[in-house]
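Homework help thread (please don't just give me the answer)

Our assignment gives two proteins as sequence + structure token strings and asks us to describe the second one. The first is just a warm-up. Here they are:
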Amino acid sequence: MSGGGEIYLDWNATTPLAPEVLEAMLRAGREAWANPASVHAAGRRARAVVEDARERVAAVLGVGAREVLFTGSATEANNLALARAPGLVTSRLEHASVTQVADALARRGVPVEWLPIGADGRVVLDELGDRIARLPRGTRVALMAANHETGVIQPLAEAAEIAHAHGAWLHVDAAQALGKAPVAGLTLADSLTLAPHKLRGPKASGILAWRKDWTPEPILVGGGQERGLRPGTVDPVIAAGVGAWAERVEASPRRYAELAPLRDALEARLAEAADVNGRGAPRLPHVSSLSFRGWRSDALVAALDLEGVRISGGPACAAGSSRPSAVISAMQGEERALGAIRVSLGELTTAAEIERAIAVFFRVLTR
């Protein structure tokens, strides 16, 4: 997406609102802005918008509406799913909203097992059954559907089979994957975290959904909103945007598949200067993690930004940190992580923009 020469290649950080999402939010802002917990007519109108959005999300996921919980972010949804776990198996590939929950659980004495990671960026499941067997009943296995930095798709179907055979619960962070590519095993997850703003939906919204007879234990106290599971006033304007976002999910993978040739062209042209992290593993079609030899990621991101190309050195939530990517460090070691950047395309990215971005890369790299 260009504007005044800007080339935005940071779609994994966030995406622009889709026109129909914005229109739904504007309409709700005019007509259904009241508190959906209020019992008067204005509140009932707002409540209808919220419940319509919940039903749309449930239909996309194939769950009941009561198994869809609206939160303020995917981070909050991951915390709700995992913070009360009696035991946890996960990996250092996960988003910080999972790995930091794991670290917090361990500090409280809850047993946590860390899975090994292959050089291709996929978790190694050889010992998953044995690790679950060492932990209490009701243990959670937390794996993302696709990595936020590399786009590498994780072996969810195999993980689900092992977890369920050992009586464990599989929680999947699908924030970056849903609507971008088919992911085998996604429908086998017992609970899912989603982030609408990663696919042209509204920010300040997250979703926790589940498929079993289960009620998440609240981590906040206060009012009785969201059946007492997530206190705080639900915004019908954001809910309207989430409902419109849900309508985009089914058609989106076809749009994203068209980005693979553009991503591949970028990687091929930069092959002499950079290593591709996760190459050889199944990946989302729009993401490239590149490690540039002789560069630090923060310096390269800044240099490209001055030239109008917007990328990131990793997840936006870690921006400003001087530490190398934990994901690339786990895959390839800290030295390669020091020069790692993430380029992520979106449905508005054009071939002309990729050509311009490649030219900017060469201009910066040859200074």
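The one we have to describe:
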Amino acid sequence: MPKIAVDCAENTRASYQTNLDKWIIPAVGDLKMKDITPADLQGILDGMKAQGKAHGTVQKVHVVLSSLFKTAKKAKVIQTNPMLDVDKPDPRPDEVIKNEAELALSAGELSYVLDCISKEPLKWQAFIALAADTGARRGELCGLLWKDVDWKSGMVRIEGNLQYTKAKGVYRTIPKTKKVREVDLGPDALTILRAWRTEQSEKCISQWVFTQENSPEPMFPQSPTRYFRKFGERYDIPNFHPHILRHTSASLALTSGAADIKSIADRLGHSEAVLLKKYAHSTDESRRRAGQAVRDAARDAAKKHA
């Protein structure tokens, strides 16, 4: 845990601590590390699956256990690492794991969302418009400062990420990938953002783009998730969540074929490899277009020589 606290973000440390306290220590906390067997550890993961815990939740505990015993082996606290004989968790038979691209909205569905926001408070119009336009993460949008917006160029600088943990409260840190990036805004998003700035200034003066109601303090990082859920219920958009708009931005950019992979990855703050892994299904159409382009070129060449 001291190494995690130094090397990782605060929310990662908090996640490790939560998984230790909830799943690992109750099961094997009374045993010496040298006496813990692969069966003990496999039992933790299998027990979570038996309780119906999501695959992602079980995976996180597997990661913590792997890190824990790898560190213990390296420090010579144990002679052998029991996690080497523990199976990586598979989804339950009744659990469907969707590819990230499958969580994305279609272009028509996104258009419907953007039509619906006109009925919402201006702050949330701006938040949803920016989320759809930039593909930024929830915490990155909550961490935006007005100085990050370049009105002249129509660019927004993503250099903050608002997070919350019980131990630390609300705090601003660097983006998840530790890289600052600039993203362009479309005219519609800029117009809504200007209107929101005017309205916000009539209630309070704040450095934060998105604030609590009638307060200069930043919006609580979990607030968008709650709002999106209620928004989805109002407008019949199933499972609506801030990250869905990020999935949508990536998926539509890839399938359109209008931008190269590196530019899309840079815009979202992903590596190219991660982008393609997460959205592999989105590139099927692009691959078909690439293949057809080759066939069209060959056919055109054959016509010229006929």
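TA reply:
I won't write it for you, but here's a hint about the kind of observation we're looking for: The mean pLDDT is 87.
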